[in-house]
Design goal:
Layout (H helix, E strand, L loop, with lengths): L15 H8 L2 H34 L3 H22 L6
């Protein structure tokens, strides 16, 4: 009788280790099982944020300009920190 999940590494034939890692390794299976729900959650949050932004644009005048100026300000801060050498010291 064969076990349900064989976790023994394969013999040293070419490609057998890659096949074992991609099919029998529990960490690979776990990461694949977490990737799809994470992808769905990311998509759902993206759509929810976009819909909220679209509704907020109807209420707040100039929201696009405010968001753009905040993004440019964040880039300016990153450039300033980079030029000061704070990131290089770490």
């Amino acid at each position: 009788m064969t076990p349900l999940l064989d976790l023994r590494p394969p013999s040293a034939t070419p490609g057998s280790l890659l096949r074992w890692v991609s099919t029998s390794n529990p960490f690979y299976v776990l990461s694949a099982a977490l990737f799809l729900p994470g992808l769905v959650l990311t998509g759902w949050l993206g759509v929810a944020c976009f819909n909220g932004y679209q509704r907020l644009r109807l209420i707040v005048a100039g929201l696009d300009q405010i968001a753009l100026s905040l993004a440019v300000f964040a880039v300016a801060i990153l450039v300033s920190v980079r030029k000061s050498g704070v990131l290089a010291r770490r």
